[in-house]
Amino acid sequence: MEDKKCFNCNSSEQDIPVVNLSYKGKQLWICPRCIPSMIHEPHIVQDSLNRAENE
Fold it and tell me: What is the pLDDT of residues 1-55, one digit of tens each?
């Protein structure tokens, strides 16, 4: 079974809850600590989104 990790900070679901989201047709996971940055300061997580998109 795949360990789900936050696309932004790489925190594992074993350490903190993660929430599923879809971005450009790809399923990603994000932790509650990174959600505020994604909402209010999307430029902060844009590099992580770009990396996740290319994986």
Answer: 678 999 999 999 999 999 999 988 999 999 999 999 989 988 888 888 888 877 7
Domain span holding position 22: 1-42
Assigned domain for 50 exists: no
Phi, psi for 5 (deg, rounded to 5): -130, 145
Q: Write down the pTM of the prediction.
A: 0.82
Residue 4 lies in a domain: yes
What total of structural domains would you count in the chain? 1
Strands (E), 1-55: 19-23, 26-30
If you ran DSSP here, which 8-state letter would residue 24 be given?
T
